[in-house]
Design a protein that fits this description.
The complex is a heterodimer of chains A (328) and B (324). Chain A has 13 helices and 14 strands. Chain A is of the alpha/beta class. In chain B, strand 5 and strand 6 form a beta hairpin. The termini of chain B are far apart. Classes of the chains: A alpha/beta (328), B alpha/beta (324). The complex binds thiamine diphosphate (TPP) and magnesium ion (MG). Chain A: It comes from uncultured spirochete.
Chain lengths: 328, 324
């Protein structure tokens, strides 16, 4: 086992996959000479050269669409979006082309492409740069969506995504890049569509994905001090969803809180809450609670921006509600 | 006296100098305040580029004209007449800021002074600026809109869609590329098919011109002409070649460029060269210059004190200003 950051884990996955398969190339803004806006691609330009590590102009629609074209013509592009906020300029190419070309061509075309970059709020970045946009991708049939929350999963899921013959969107987060964790030195893959039980418990199921995992784990620690054993599920993939892991856990605990930093309407969190409701209704002891980002554009002021996001206190309050207890 | 100087009254020359020096002083102070963590997140300073905003915006009649730009917006906001107190308070995230602390550095707005921001998505302000010009035309005002964007932004599809819209509908707009030669860590030449942006105007049937963005009077004269044309329904494109002194934002190690390159441009500093030309022409005395800088220093100190003392927005502000 080696300890490495989330950033290093992504870098290692890219490096190994580029070494293994010369159809794999990386394209995006500042990925080469600058080593990546968040340094995920550090060293790859000098190792693989500008043919395979391609710096682009600021043209998200253009280079994302170019990636789709390269994928149907036999390459395996990894498109880096500097952030998911900017991927909105490329939404058309992902939704109307990447997700649909296989089906529209009656299965003739294959679109093996990865779109990746940081998603969700960081700090002090205000409304246009602090959006959790997972639902934009999760909504779309034809796409796969992964959201690793640990360095090991970042490594294993990126490798799986690159090898997958479908378009895969990966949600990372600026504040997660420096997170550290154990990653086996042996090569391994993490399957797309399998959730991870981050902590076992019997009293309540807490479901989340991506960056809020830390908030949820801290809440679980504090709940344990009050004698509440929370089970924590880290979804890892949003599409396909690992329904079995979710359902089995809630069948065991009978109570569920979903934690999602996205806005509450039409969100991943709302979808999961609905899934639990419909598949576990007979065993639920309380309505499912959703702790989401507040339903507002993110303000710049730091106090307000913290108040707009899920917090340990908000998670504990939701757990108290599903337990009908005021003492947690 | 050289013709270009004779063309402007002393008062007007002093106005341009004042705008430039106000921006410089504000930006240097903002950089310091960032270091003290009074300001967070992205903060894109405009030092080095002052002559572009000052020369271009001073040519407008802001009772009817409008200005739209991207996230490197402090200079344009101040040039339009935003109170430095409101600008600094916004950077501090205070409720007295122009956007009540909700927008921060990238999202300054001042409707009273016809400054429409402050956009953080590269290229996104360009169609919006055309919309402002469209409204001016629709309402029968003879106002124009100045649309600023960077050398990096030039490669967004929105630019090219908007050039075409501007031309086919005769919109009263001037597109100004502030070519500061870098888009984050990318040199403009590496990602541009042409080594002179102004030539692209021809592809859309517009006039393209260039000016020296380090020379406030050249900017002023070029934009004045373009604005006069725009008032007659002839949009055009102006490239101002300039340079940014600081990193892209505050946390940029700037490994992509050399110290020498920066020093080279600092030697050609727009404010210093304008100031020395004004004194050579005997328009500006030493005393006047030091009185000017002192007055501006005091004004910016007051802006910092104001920002410092102002309250944070109340928690309830989270839910305000979202819907009409
Ligand atoms: C659509 C979009 N893509 C990428 C970014 C990240 N980004 C912010 S500024 C910038 C460089 C822009 O350069 P330029 O247009 O030359 O303006 P300058 O910063 O030099 O003023 C980039 C890539 C963004 N904000 N929006
Ligand atoms: Mg630039």
């Amino acid at each position: 086992m080696a300890e490495m950051t989330y950033r290093e884990a992504l870098n290692r996955a890219l490096d190994e996959e580029m070494a293994r398969d010369d159809r794999v190339f990386l394209i995006g803004e500042e990925v080469g000479e600058y080593d990546g806006a968040y340094k995920v691609s550090r060293g790859l330009l000098s190792k693989y050269g500008p043919k395979r590590v391609r710096d682009t102009p600021i043209s998200e629609l253009g280079f994302t669409g170019l990636g789709v074209g390269a994928a149907i013509a036999g390459l395996r592009p990894v498109v880096e979006w500097m952030t998911h906020n900017f991927a909105l300029l490329a939404l058309d190419q992902v939704v109307n082309n990447a997700a649909k070309l296989r089906q529209m061509s009656g299965g003739q075309l294959s679109v093996p492409i990865v779109f990746r970059g940081p998603n969700g709020p960081a700090e002090f970045l205000a409304a246009q740069h602090s959006q959790a946009l997972g639902s934009y991708w999760m909504h779309v049939p034809g796409l796969k969506v992964v959201a690793p929350a640990t360095p090991a999963d970042a490594y294993g899921l990126l490798k799986s995504a690159i090898r997958n013959d479908n378009p895969v969107v990966m949600l990372e987060a600026e504040l997660m890049y420096a997170w550290k964790g154990e990653v086996s030195e042996q090569e391994f893959l993490v399957p797309i569509g399998k959730a991870r039980i981050a902590r076992e418990g019997v009293d309540v199921t807490l479901i989340t994905y991506s960056k809020p995992i830390r908030v949820v784990e801290e809440a679980a620690d504090r709940l344990a001090e009050k004698g509440v054993q929370a089970e924590v599920i880290d979804l890892r993939s949003l599409r396909p969803l690992d329904e079995e892991t979710i359902v089995n856990s809630v069948r065991k605990t009978g109570r569920c809180v979903v934690v999602d930093e996205a806005w509450p309407l039409a969100s991943p969190g709302a979808t999961i809450a609905h899934l639990v409701d419909s598949r576990c209704f007979d065993v639920l002891d309380a309505p499912v609670e959703l702790v989401s980002g507040e339903d507002v554009p993110m303000p710049y002021n730091h106090t307000l921006e913290l108040a707009a996001q899920p917090s340990v206190e908000k998670v504990i309050a939701a757990v108290a509600k599903v337990l009908y207890r005021e003492d947690v | 006296m050289k013709a270009e100087f004779a063309h402007y009254k002393k008062e007007e020359l002093m106005r341009m100098l004042t705008i430039m020096q106000t921006i410089r002083t504000f930006e240097e102070k903002a950089g310091m305040m960032y270091g003290l963590r009074k300001i967070g997140g992205f903060c894109h300073l405009y030092t080095g580029q002052e002559a572009v905003a000052a020369g271009a915006i001073s040519s407008l009649d802001l009772s009817k004209d409008y200005v739209v730009t991207a996230y490197r917006d402090h200079g344009h906001a101040l040039a339009c007449g935003m109170d430095p107190k409101k600008a600094m308070a916004e950077l501090f995230g205070k409720v007295t800021g122009c956007s009540h602390g909700k927008g921060g550095s990238m999202h300054l707005f001042d409707v009273e002074h016809h400054f429409f921001g402050g956009n953080g998505i590269v290229g996104a302000q360009i169609p919006v600026a055309a919309g402002v010009a469209f409204a001016q035309q629709y309402q029968g005002s003879d106002g124009v809109t100045l649309c600023f964007f960077g050398d990096g932004a030039f490669h967004q599809g929105a630019v090219h869609e908007t050039f075409n819209l501007g031309k086919i509908w005769d919109l009263p707009i001037v597109f100004i590329i502030e070519n500061n030669q870098w888009g984050m860590g990318t040199n403009w030449k590496k990602v541009s098919a042409v080594d002179d942006f102004s030539v692209t105007a021809g592809a859309y049937g517009m006039k393209g011109s260039s000016c020296n963005g380090l020379d406030v009077l050249d900017v002023r004269a070029t934009i004045e002409k373009a604005v006069a044309e725009a008032r007659l329904g002839r949009p055009s494109l102006v490239e101002a070649r300039t340079y940014r002194y600081k990193g892209h934002s505050m946390s940029d190690p700037q490994k992509y460029r050399t110290r020498e390159e920066i020093d080279e441009y600092r030697k050609r500093d727009a404010i210093q060269s304008f100031r020395s030309r004004l004194s050579e022409e005997k328009i500006l005395s030493e005393e006047e210059w030091s009185a000017l800088t002192q007055r501006i220093n005091t004004q910016i100190e007051e802006a910092v004190a104001f920002a410092e003392e102002s309250p944070e927005p109340a928690l309830s502000e989270l839910y305000t200003d979202i819907y009409a």
